[in-house]
Amino acid sequence: MKPHQPNLNKSTSLLIAASLCVGTAAPVFANDELSFEWDWAVSYETAKQRDSAFMQAQGSSRDSLNALLDVQVNYHNFSGLFALYSQGLYLNQQGESDWWSEADNQLLIRELAWLGEWQVGDTTLDVSLGKLRVDWGVGYGYRPLDLFKPYRQNPVGLVAEEGAGVFSLSHYDMDGEWTVIATDSSWGQQDQSALDQAAEQQGVGIRRYALVGDTEYQLIGYYDDVRRGLLGASAIAVWDESIAMHGSMLWQKQSVGYQFQQDDLYQPGSVEEQGSAFQALVGVNWANQAGHNVIAEYWYDSRAWSKSEWQQAIERGELLSQIPEPNNSLLASSALLATSYAQGFQHANIVQHNVMLHWSWDVEAWAAWNGKADMGWLSDVTPTLDVMLAPQDGGVIVTQWLNYQWIDTGDQSVEVEVAARFLTGDDQSAYAQINDKHMIVFNIKGKF
User: What pLDDT, on a 0 to 100 scale, did the predictor assign at position 320?
Assistant: First the structure.
């Protein structure tokens, strides 16, 4: 259970091939026995807050306790993933603390589907029907081809992702796979932002995946009622046992996003159609036998606000925030207008140009490589470091994880994890306007 890091090891080709299939529905063969697999997690988060151009901090810090209980149920060709997701079991903010009474408890059907086979003459088709998480993306920091219900990459706390409504038919040949798919992303149960609601789509498409030599290819065509047509492609090229390249791109005819009126200071930002959009990512992976794993990525997303748009939003937020509290109700809304510019943080990417550097270390692999038979508990520790850069405005997000595999019997496991995230960089950067200056998260999670 290490969602924040890719499955890198000595064979980088296996690693990246696995990353291509994350979240993709796989056929479940008939099983007469009803089976249950339980996963649980508890997360405590504390964050130091700061004022920004868009809003005043609500206190100097905030603390919260969250919990997640998942059960994977399989019976015959039916598979379901159900969750009890509790947020705010404990809250401490604005100088007030509270246990239980403000908690948001949700019972979620994250996945529920029939997965099987359909024989058409001499052709066997894999069939997926139901609510499923499907992700064809390639990448670590961002995945442009996560098309249907995009998932957060590398969160430090708990996230309960839900699937979309899916009907797909897949056929495997000697070179790869053909898939025809129809999806409906409106099947989620959790509250959504105005942008998420506007992006809910229903559509159909086709995908071709092929392995040619040491290179994996993917071509996707999809049409829905929001993007009105998109084309995507990806490739993973393995150079040797240690180095591989990966890349993906996506063009869509239409997109939606938060916009503000260029000539009207007193109009709040709102969700608008933005025309065509383009995304692209390129990255390199390196791994060695000593357990060191490095990923470097650059990606571009035209849907995010540009540097000039962020500068204008920050200037307007500062101006609106400085207007003194008047008796006039119209002017009194200026502080609320300032907060509307923070909606830019809800885009899939905050800035258009992004650079990600990732490092993790498998201590157990290092011990084996050095001939050290017993490292004790140290062999169960995995450090990870991510550095995300916004080269245009100088913003920086640094995240570090320290994971300890406490118990692992095969059927049962317990992990303890500490994560720290720092949002820093230039004072006028977009990242510096996020109210959380830094946060520390303690996670304990396991399965039984």
Answer: 86
CB 124 within 8 A of CB 116: no
CA distances, 37 to each of 1, 66, 448 (Å): 13, 21, 7
Q: How many other C-beta atoms can be found within 10 angstroms of the C-beta atom of residue 66? A: 23
Give alpha helix (H) positions in 156-219. 194-198
Question: Is a pLDDT exceeding 70 seen at residue 267?
Answer: yes
Q: Go through 21-43 and write b for each residue having 16 or more CB atoms within 10 A of its CB, e for each that does not.
A: ebbbbeebeeeeeeeeeebbbbb
To the nearest 10°, report the CA torsion of 113, 107, 401, 410. -60
Q: What is the pTM of this model?
A: 0.89
pLDDT band at 356 (very low <50, low <70, confident <90, very high): very high
Taking a C-beta distance cutoff of 8 angstroms, is the pair 133, 268 a contact?
Answer: no
DSSP class of 320: H
Evaluate if residue 31 carries a pLDDT over 70.
Answer: no
Which contacts of 118-124 are long-range, i.e. CB under 8 A and separated by 24 or more positions? 118/169, 123/171, 124/171, 124/172
The architecture that CATH gives domain 12-447 is Beta Barrel (2.40)
Contact 87, 98 (CB under 8 A): no
Look at residue 14 and tell me whether its pLDDT is greater than 90: no
Contact yes or no for 406/380 (Cβ under 8 A): yes
Q: What is the pLDDT of residues 185-199, one digit of tens each?
A: 999 999 999 999 999
Token match 């996003």: residue? Answer: 257
Measured between alpha carbons, how far apart are the two ends of the chain, in Å? 13
Counts for the chain of helices (H) and strands (E), in that order: 6, 21
CA distances from 371 to 289, 366, 380, 405 (A): 12, 9, 16, 21
Task: Judge contact between 204 and 165, C-beta under 8 A.
Answer: no
Q: Which residues pair with 72 in a beta bridge?
A: 37, 81
d(CA 115, CA 72): 14
Cβ-based neighbour number of residue 370 at 10 Å: 11
What lies within 8 Å, CB to CB, of 327 at 6+ separation is: none
Residue 203's φ and ψ, nearest 5 degrees, are: -165, 180
pLDDT band at 95 (very low <50, low <70, confident <90, very high): confident
Q: Which DSSP category does 305 fall into?
A: B
Quick count: other Cβ atoms within 10 Å of Cβ 273?
Answer: 12
CA–CA separation, 422 and 397 (whole Å): 6
Pairing mode, strands 292-301 and 215-224: unpaired
